[in-house]
Amino acid sequence: MAESHRHEIVYRSCNLCEAHCGVAVRVDRDSNRVLDIRGDENDAMSRGYICPKATGLQALSEDPDRLRAPVQRVNGKFVEISWEEAFDLVSSR
Q1: Which of 8, 19, 10 is nearest to 40 (CA)?
Q2: Most exposed: 13, 55, 58, 60, by fewest CB within 10 Å?
């Protein structure tokens, strides 16, 4: 029996430059992965055009060095902390 995957298109704005092109991102909700990124043809400004930076958003999402949780420097090393700890730390400063 074939595996069922929940694919969904989410619409966002690329924030890698001042153009903020509209992007249509196809995601697999089951694996929490970006499948592809295309220009959003209905975006009023970019009208479906995206530059190579926007297509590179997928690689940024999959980068193994990408931070996926807040970290705090402790004795010269970065240690993962909870979001609650991070917000408390920031608001106390």
Answers
A1: 10
A2: 60
* Backbone dihedral angles phi then psi of residue 26, each to the nearest 5 degrees: -90, 120
| 63 token code pair | 């980068």
Longest dimension (CA), the chain: 55
pTM: 0.66
pLDDT tens per residue across all 93 residues of the chain: 555 568 899 999 998 888 889 999 999 988 888 899 999 999 998 999 988 888 888 888 888 888 889 999 999 999 999 999 999 999 998
The SS3 call for residue 36 is strand
Contact 54, 37 (CB under 8 A): yes
